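Hi everyone,

Forwarding the result from last night's run.
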Amino acid sequence: HQAEVVKKEFAGSGAVFVEQNPQLGTGHAVLQAKDVLAGYTGLTVILCGDVPLLKPSTISGLIENHKASGAPVTVLTTYPADPRGYGRVVKDAQGKVSKIVEERDATAAEKSIGEINTGIYCVDTPFLFAALGKVTNNNNQQEYYLTDIVEIACREGFTVRSHIAPDYVEVMGINTPEELARAGQHLQNNRKNPV
């Protein structure tokens, strides 16, 4: 969305751009960076472009948690007042993430889960692209979901960790005038009452 505007804004920064065309899902979007990251064995942090209130300290916490856990995938999660519309984080009896289910694909029991996926991840890069190569579009949207790498990791015997964002507002997607107004109100409140 508005790729040329983004490229212009970052001109001269050294940023490398990849574009997803056609748009076949979030997993497919990340897969577009495979050639650019070929040979890179470090961590990849995947962010959403519609979360401008995300704090650097939350990203740092996600990375630190990921490094300490030894897991190939760490998901940033949170607990909004109303989880409707979001993918749910399903955990096993030990509290480990077992899968993420998009709401439109969720059962009634899964929809009752309050912990949601923010769409933000820290992933070991070699694992990321190996797992994305196994993702299919066998779902209600016929898209390649990035969330499927969680279930792939679990199926292959890896542990997947979650890192909880302390404040839902900082990971709230802003895509409508109502969400923009809510974010603006949050910023105004924080200016009046700094932490």
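The chain has seven helices and six strands.

Cheers,
N.
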